[in-house]
């Protein structure tokens, strides 16, 4: 109960009841209770109160004798609380004081009301008339909590010590095996610590229930080792638990490190194994746009598979960075090595993927340009294979311009193909043997041969088209020249016709005198020279058309009737010109003779003796008048008059007037001849 005798020895109370008391259980209980106090407290001895008021004498005697075997050295006094009258006759048969030497302790029989003679009332509970407050159920509950805490904490300490000591001793492999076997304690350390702290708080309050509002005497005070033992266990638990947490942290870190290392090796092994093998099998660039696109699609599938592992790499890199920031120095080297290995492999694989993607993109662009150029060459070739049948020179010029534009576009396309091809060849040449982990010379040679073959083929096709364009250009230029010659020849015919028309309509004057007529004759000769040049120019143009037609192996559409037209107009012009010349020459002769007679002085009549001169002038004048009335007859039988009838009448009238003057002159000269004989 926590009560003490006058020697400061603890008081052990054994309440007996009417029911049969099991001595074995009582012995075990006494052993347990006597194990609670400290050795120092035990040295002061015990005072045992055997409450036999509700029991039989035989039971009491058996209990007292049992104390000899259980606690003979520690018991100094046994107080048997007797009933008031029941045991008086039996005491004479067995006197405990006579057995003191044999028992080892003093036994007294005492009534409950006289127990205060041996023990202070404040050290006795209310059952024996004392004032000591004691609640057995409260003590029992606390004791159970204490026992449970002690048992659990002791077991937990052993487990933690085994775990902690196993992590400190032996090889790394032994430590890991020890930790694996005893890694998880049987109870939660946090729960045990919380229970211990609550128990310690109860003990430090030194109260059981606090019903009286004061501090009661605790039977589990320092002398009973409860509080010191709890504190010691808590300290040990905290120490071992701290070490255990460190072990767990180290184990967790090691486990995390091993998991990271395992994942790193998974990433590395896949990238260097199946990932690299996928790239090794993909070395071609395709021979067309469709083939390159198929290879790009296959490469995208490979990139998709790599992306999953690159995502793992990013996660692992973040975990490693976090461990490097919070890790111990002993792990830094290993972590950095893992990080470096992972980064090297991932960056190398990413570079290979990027190189492959760029190569396929360059190949796709190369084949795209090659296809466009091939289509341009096909279009140009188709245009060259169609025979030229233009309507005029303007359409030929337009066709020639279109042809030149297509050829220029082909030149630009071929230049772009060379640039794309050279760029692709440069990328292939930069592909080192480490790119896919093997020698790629053979594969590269096939790619290089294909690229160079495409460029050479396009160059040959372009050269053939250029040759055909040169031939077509020459032919079209000849056709332009042919059309020009035909147009100019037709123009020459028109000019000559205009000259003929001008000759007939405007060249009608014969002059008023010989001088003017000579001037007209000279102008007419120059006019004829112009017509002759026009005719010769037309003939030359028509001869050129014949040569061009022979070169082009075609028949001219206009020169066939242009030449007859030119000859016909020229013949008409020639006949008309000759007629004009004949009339002008006749007019010159007429005017010259008439003017000679008219200008002669009358004092020289001998000049007019010959009548033939007048007759000749008259004959010339009549002949000229006759010619003015006669049309020009062309070789084809057609006729054409000079000028209008009024024009011809005016010219004829002028000639008649001069003929009248000549006739008058003739008469004047004849009158003197008639009067001379009469005189």
From TrEMBL:
Gene label: Sestd1
SUPFAM superfamilies for this protein: Spectrin repeat (SSF46966)
Keyword set, alphabetical order: Repeat
Domain CRAL-TRIO: 1-136
Protein name per the record: SESD1 protein
InterPro entries per the UniProt record, alphabetical: CRAL-TRIO_dom, Spectrin_SESTD1
One GO MF term attached to the UniProt entry: phosphatidylinositol-4,5-bisphosphate binding
Stretches that traverse the bilayer: none
Lyase recorded as keyword: no
Family label: Belongs to the SOLO family.
Keyword Repeat part of the UniProt annotation: yes
Pfam families assigned to the protein according to its UniProt record, in alphabetical order: CRAL_TRIO_2 (PF13716), Spectrin_SESTD1 (PF24915)
